[in-house]
Amino acid sequence: MESFPHSVSINMQPYARNWAGSPATTFGPTITSFVQPEPVPSPRDFVLWSFFNSMFCNPFCLGFIALVFSIKARDRKIAQDPAAADSYGRTAKHLNIAAFCLGIVGTIICIVLLVMYYNSLQAGNRR
Question: pLDDT (tens digit, 9 = 90+) per residue, 108-124?
């Protein structure tokens, strides 16, 4: 494995000539630059989203299962295994999406049923 950053030294010689017409013999300053590698994005683990879903949108325990996969992804990220961390992170993401969508649909259905029940009680009291 290579260590970064790489140091590159370039010895610059001036092109000018001295007063006698011969090429200049003094060396110019040495320029050193560092080449930075492209940063590798770390795999996402979605722990906060999984925690939210396990607390508030937890149909069929999908939020809790997503939280388990998120913690596995974070463990793999700390263990320097980005392939496994990415796999667990994607699974947690998909479970979070499913839990959130089912939670929203369930909440909307509950609200509609409560409104219908309230309206039927109001209609029954008018008779």
Answer: 999 999 999 999 999 88
Q: What CA–CA distance (Å, rounded) separates 103 from 58?
A: 7
Residue 88, classified by CB atoms within 10 Å of its CB into exposed (0-12), middle (13-18) or buried (19+), is: buried
- Is the per-residue pLDDT at 99 higher than 80? yes
CA 32 vs CA 1, 35, 36, 88, 126: distances in Å: 23, 10, 13, 42, 89
Token pair recorded at residue 43: 């795999």
Tell me which residue of 57, 97, 89 sits closest to 70, measured CA to CA: 89
Per-residue DSSP letters for the chain?
A: ---SSEEEEEE-----B-TTSSBP-S--PEEEEEEPPPPPPPPP--HHHHHHHHHH--GGGHHHHHHHHHHHHHHHHHTT-HHHHHHHHHHHHHHHHHHHHHHHHHHHHHHHHHHHHHHHHHHHHH-
